[in-house]
Amino acid sequence: MDGKLGQPQIIYLHGFCSSPASWKSRLLAEEMARRGLAGQFVCPQLSPVPDTAMAEVGPLIEQAPGPVTLVGSSLGGHYANHLAEKFGLKAVLINPATVDRLDLAKFVGDHVNFHTGEQFFFSEAHAAQLRAQVVRPTPARYWLLLETGDEVLDYRQAQDFYAACRQTVLNGGDHSFTRFPEFIPQILEFAEIRAGL
Fold first, then answer.
1. Which parts of the chain register pLDDT below 70?
2. pLDDT at 197 (0 to 100)
3. String of b and e for 151-168 (b: at least 16 CB within 10 Å)?
4. C-alpha angle 72/173/142, rounded to 5°?
5. Which pairing describes strands 166-170 and 9-13: parallel, antiparallel, or unpaired?
């Protein structure tokens, strides 16, 4: 685990075609700010190129003043898994993409970012980068949050891939993980973040 002595940090990793303006990122940022913890939250805009995204997040982890917990949603969950194993971190995975179980060919083509309007082409080379990032999870690092009503990803794929990890599986919901607000206090506890002054 991270041996840094400064204040613990959360780095939130958003999903495919998403941004720091995503619902969960904003809610977590707002709640941490309300608790006086704004300086302990980071949500970078991830490049649509997988290798570039990971190259940009690595320095944020290395330069963080305290221990880092990753919170990743959808594709951000895959990235969080990759980085948690690389840097020895804890991670909360929310309806994560289980890349080795997905047909990535379905995603090859033109896309538009939901929030920024940026247009980009997701290529077979990008899909290959994602596949190369897959690494088996160390169970003690993870907390998996799933809703069975996820209409984008089959929750059972993540449930199986992270079978030995801590899991919370809730009936219903959707890909956004509708019950996220009620889990924010537990996520902060998992990250060992205490309320500010």
1. 1-4, 195-197
2. 42
3. eebebebbbebbeebeee
4. 30
5. unpaired
Per-residue pLDDT reduced to its tens digit, 104-135: 888 888 888 787 888 989 899 999 999 999 99
Amino acid at 89: L
Per-residue 3-state assignment (H helix, E strand, C coil) for the chain = CCCCCCCCEEEEECCCCCCCCCHHHHHHHHHHHHCCCHHHEECCCCCCCHHHHHHHHHHHHHHCCCCEEEEEECHHHHHHHHHHHHHCCEEEEECCCCHHHCCHHHHCEEEECCCCCCEEEECHHHHHHHHHHCCCCCHHHEEEEEECCCCCCCHHHHHHHCCCCEEEEECCCCCCCCCHHHHHHHHHHHCCCCCCC
